[in-house]
Design brief:
The chain is an alpha+beta fold. The strands form 3 sheets. Strands 3-4-6-7-10-11-14-16 form an 8-stranded antiparallel beta barrel. The protein has a 3-stranded antiparallel sheet with strand order 2-1-13. A hairpin with a 2-residue loop joins strand 4 and strand 5.
């Protein structure tokens, strides 16, 4: 079967992109950052350092009509900042003592192997968008409702003073239902602070451009009914980095782009 030239071009471009991302993104480890609630909204806590943020999550996943793709949406309620393996105390960060922080997300999945929603099934994350929010006062607290086994979505009711501080979109991601019926979700996204977010996450400047995200849960947190998967009791976290391509990455990038140009001219 003859493959149209436009498909050849897309395949070659995709391969070159994966080659570069696959080498450059894992090259950087998570790094420390500084958060200043006082500067952002007058909270009682001053600057503190962290290198990870933990949270719990609720998601509802719905199977699409083709039975090969699915759409998920939900929230992550951030519980604690972590610095060098130790939780930053709430009395230091103020998180959930005086203010709240969370993310609301939606994503799409493509079944890679196995049967949808069955154990040992794997998925490619084909799309992901997340908005990150802060509520500066628990006096009018933001509340979180878990997805239900009846197919009701995971929802967030914003407090009166909540504001958007960052957003993120997918670079690459994978998910699975493991042999015990639990789930895992790993992704790399870009990460962009809003103007308000630059007053909360104050260092480094400019802030890290990438976020690395991992969430998982046990069998007891996954429920399948009809075309829905309800995923609760989920724990995980986020860290950040600004990957710096190593010298060999630049060489392979140039080689990949050179190959791409040569192939496109011949297509």
């Amino acid at each position: 079967m003859r493959i149209p030239s436009i498909y050849k071009k897309l395949q070659i471009a995709g391969a070159a992109t994966i080659l570069v991302l696959g080498i450059s993104l894992p090259a950087a480890a998570s790094q420390a950052f500084i958060v200043d609630p006082n500067a952002a909204f007058g909270g009682p806590q001053g600057p503190f350092q962290a290198d990870f943020i933990t949270g719990n999550s609720s998601t509802l996943v719905a199977l699409n009509a083709d039975h090969q793709t699915a759409t998920g949406s939900g929230w992550v309620n951030f519980l604690s900042f972590v610095d060098n393996g130790s939780n930053v105390l709430g009395s230091v960060s103020g998180l959930n003592n005086n203010w709240q922080m969370w993310a609301e997300f939606s994503y799409t999945l493509q079944l890679t192997s196995g049967t949808y929603a069955a154990v040992d099934s794997t998925y490619t994350v084909t799309g992901l968008h997340a908005n990150f929010w802060v509520d500066p006062s628990i006096a009018t607290a933001t509340t979180f409702t878990q997805a239900t086994n009846g197919g009701d979505a995971a929802t967030v009711t914003h407090g009166a003073d909540s504001f958007l501080f960052a957003n993120a979109d997918l670079i690459v991601g994978v998910a699975n239902i493991n042999s015990l019926g639990g789930t895992t979700f790993n992704s790399t996204t870009d990460f962009a602070l809003t103007d308000a977010g630059n007053h909360l996450f104050i260092d480094p400047v400019p802030f890290y451009k990438f976020s690395f995200n991992e969430f998982n849960n046990t069998t007891g947190g996954v429920f399948l009914t009809g075309n829905y998967i309800t995923i609760n009791q989920t724990s995980g976290g986020f860290d950040f980095a600004a990957p710096i391509p190593e010298p060999e990455t630049y060489a392979m990038l140039l080689a990949g782009l050179g190959l791409l140009g040569w192939k496109l001219r011949r297509a």
